[in-house]
Amino acid sequence: MGWSERGKREMQGMLLPVIVCVCFIASSLLFLVQMIVKSEEENITDLYNAANQTRTALLKQIEGDWQTLEGLSVSLQSLANIRTDELMEILADVNDKNTFIRMGYADASGQGEMVDLAGNIETISIAEAAFFQRAMEGEKSISMTFEDSNSAGGYVNYFAARVLNSDGETEGVLCAVHATNVLRSIIDMPLLKNSGYSDILNESGDFVIISKPSMAETALSSNQEAITERIREEDSGSFTVKDEKGRKYMVTVLPLIEGQWYQVSTVPVAVLRSSYIETARGIMAIILAACVLFIWLISSQRRMAAENQKTLMKLAYSDSLTGMRNYDGFKKDAEQFLAEQELSACLIWYADFKNFKFINDVLGYEEGDRLLSMVAEYLKMVESPDCMSCRIAADNFTGIMRCREDEGLARGHKEILDYLKQSGMENFPFLEIPLGVYRLKESDRGQTVDVLVNYANMAHKTAKEKNGSAFVYYDDEIRKKTLEDSTLEAEAEPAIRNGEFRLYMQPKVDIQNGNRICGAEVLVRWQNPRLGLIPPGRFIPLFEKSDLIIKLDRYMFEQACIWLKSYLDGGGRPVNIAVNVSKVGIFQPGFVEYYAAVKKKYGIPDHMLELEFTENILAVDTELFSDLVIKLRKEGFLCSLDDFGSGYSSLNLLKDLPVDALKLDILFFRKSRDVRRERIVVSNFINMAKQLNITTIAEGVEEEDTVEFLQNADCDVIQGYIFAKPMPKEEFEAMLGGTDHLAMNHNEQGN
């Protein structure tokens, strides 16, 4: 039984190579057939070209003879009353200068005389001759081949052209006799490998001139009806005929004298095919040898493939870094797993590390890889028939398990954190693993693994927004939020067109000059007809996933320019207006040109508009960012770097960044365990920026003692709830009109 199954598998394994071999033979035979067909077509073309060369030589000879006759007939027209003896003298003289053997003249009744090269004159009567009758009707006429009565064994053809009188009426016919051997010498020249010859037939298919070496006379005679049909149809194409012995000939019919003579060229088909038949046999032998070799190679390869199959499967479905299952392998195994399970007892989880990029950047990629390998080691250790997992990419992991009780998942979540701490990661207390979970339902049967994992990932994104190593189940709220996100994205462009995005401004206060209002940062709020006023934190992260953020950036910039122009035209004092630009927007083609054009359109003076860039832009391309800032400054813009110190920036970058201002991140002003050390760092940073002629702006300030400290540290500007919260543009304009200075809000705090 075991041998039978193995034999069946081996037979099945050989089936594909056999099919491939058969297909190879079939395609090779098809190629051979196509080659033969092409060769046949080339043979037809070659025969036609060779026959046409013979025809050209014949026509050259015939046309030359006719031109002689026609020229002489025109000359005779002017000699209306010439005597017969005088005419014979003229013809004898002309005959000495051409290839004719006799020349003569017959009147309209067909009676006349001819003179030969020796001057001998004979009387002729040709009234019944077909060539005479055609000539009398004005045709170029040439006769059949006749035995020459004046030369034993000789054959001749008569050429005839009519002679007109002075009134244009037919007077008679000028005749010339041509030795048939002159034309036969042309058609005796062999065609195509010295195996083909030409013959001349009349319109009825009768032979006029037969080439001496022709071997196709019997074939042409036995196919006279078919050849006559071709002549009648004036078909110059090639066709095949057989002689009485069954030998095939390829035939081409070409007209020589329309309605009179036709050149029929023939070549034995066997001769034409001899070259490519040998080639075809050789190719067929090579094909058969190749098939044998192919089958042998396939058999050898199958043996090797059987040995390497497990290795190949491992490479295809395992992660190169951790050695655990990759996502492709997971999908394959999970489909089979789910098909065998009660879905309501199963769940899918999705997890990663918070701030994993920080681990790579600060601790190094080797440490990051070590952490990933430890997670994989734990997941492989706990894998069982009831659960499986994989690494998707980077620090993203997913898994599926049979688990009816939620406590089992919570316990497993805690165990992996404990495992990491006990495996050499105890020095990293900040490690957090947010977990998203999707509990399957029977209605999910038939869904793809990708869709189910995506549900868990949606929950995972919510878990990442929470503190610590939270885990969140996918529920209707998450689904609702996802749908709401999609709705907001769909409503965004119409909202921009309808002006639903409102201009808000948060004043910036010069704390070194009596808390004077020196400008404002432009902020955005969405006045949605359906949801009311939407804060930016709800829609900005969504827009940053697409080019919607670019459209919003440019819309808000233009709205800021419109307001600033209106404010200045109304007599307002100059203030600095800062507008945010997203990371996506700055690298768009034509970025500088667009912003410069809008500034110019509204006539905004130089150094009043400030473009704010978040400092995470430095992670993309610091050099390119610096080049763009230089171009913007040439166009009259001020440029500032927002959230400086929050992640990607370092003091080392300050020497290379041509910015006008730095906004210190709010993290600088959160109370730490050692306020003195914190303030030493901030003071020295502000002092260094001063020496580089960079304005310092502290944002998010909420405490009076922080304001006092910053003032003493020589910080230039504060933007925060301690002075004013973001407000509609109308309120900000009213504030500017009412006062130049702001007092601190003792009870106002933002969030």
TrEMBL record:
Source organism superkingdom: Bacteria
UniProtKB keywords: Membrane, Transmembrane, Transmembrane helix
GO MF term set: cyclic-guanylate-specific phosphodiesterase activity
Cross-referenced InterPro entries: Cyclic-di-GMP_PDE-like (IPR050706), EAL_dom (IPR001633), EAL_sf (IPR035919), GGDEF_dom (IPR000160), Nucleotide_cyclase (IPR029787), Rev_trsase/Diguanyl_cyclase (IPR043128)
UniProt keyword Cytoplasm, yes or no: no
Keyword Transmembrane included in the entry's annotation: yes
Coiled-coil blocks: none
SMART domains per UniProt: EAL, GGDEF
Chain ranges of the GGDEF domain: 344-476
The EAL domain, residue ranges: 485-740
Family matches, as CDD domains: EAL (cd01948)
Residue stretches spanning the membrane: 14-33, 282-299
UniProt xrefs under NCBIfam families: GGDEF
Protein name: GGDEF domain-containing protein
Organism: Hungatella hathewayi
